[in-house]
């Protein structure tokens, strides 16, 4: 009779263990599915951000082109208006008021060299002395 009780308890223990294992495994699979979905959402968000950055960069470039073209057109109209109508008083010439401002803007754009660099041409700081000694050798 002791063997039968032991066998029944072992079978009941196995069944209970199997049920507990199934319940905990379902939670792990749900966690794995949620993690996959989260990773996918993060990836899509990063792609969207990159597309947004690219869009704004392209938009800024297009606006810059429009600005340059508009300045060229305005400058052309101003110079041709003074050439074609040299005797026209400045107060009657609609472009005369802004010719000086436009020339200042175009001169400022010509002097720009691009964005500032984050480095210097020569050594500085601790490496400055090491460079002098290596050149002297």
From TrEMBL:
Q: Where is the composition biased (Basic and acidic residues)?
A: 128-137
UniProt-listed InterPro entries: ZapG-like
Q: Where in the cell is it found?
A: Cell inner membrane
Q: What is this protein called?
A: Z-ring associated protein G
- Regions that span the bilayer: 6-25
Q: Where is this region: Disordered?
A: 101-137
Q: Where does the record place a coiled coil?
A: 31-65
Which UniProt keywords are given for this protein, alphabetically ordered?
A: Cell cycle, Cell division, Cell inner membrane, Cell membrane, Cell shape, Coiled coil, Membrane, Transmembrane, Transmembrane helix
Q: What membrane topology does the annotation report for this chain?
A: Single-pass membrane protein
Q: Which Pfam families match?
A: ZapG-like
Chief location: membrane
Taxonomy, superkingdom:
Bacteria
| PANTHER family, per database record | INNER MEMBRANE PROTEIN YHCB
Q: What family does this belong to?
A: Belongs to the ZapG family.
């Amino acid at each position: 009779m002791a063997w039968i009780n032991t066998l029944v308890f072992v079978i009941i223990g196995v069944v209970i263990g199997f049920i507990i294992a199934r319940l905990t495994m379902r939670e792990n699979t749900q966690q794995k599915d949620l993690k996959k979905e989260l990773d996918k959402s993060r990836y899509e968000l990063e792609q969207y951000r990159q597309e947004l950055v690219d869009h704004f960069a392209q938009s800024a470039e297009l606006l810059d082109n429009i600005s340059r073209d508009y300045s060229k057109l305005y400058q052309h109209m101003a110079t041709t208006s003074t050439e074609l109508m040299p005797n026209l008083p400045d107060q009657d010439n609609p472009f005369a008021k802004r010719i000086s401002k436009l020339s200042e803007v175009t001169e400022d754009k010509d002097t720009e060299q691009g964005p500032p660099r984050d480095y210097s041409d020569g050594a500085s700081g601790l490496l400055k002395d090491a460079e002098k000694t290596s050149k002297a050798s």
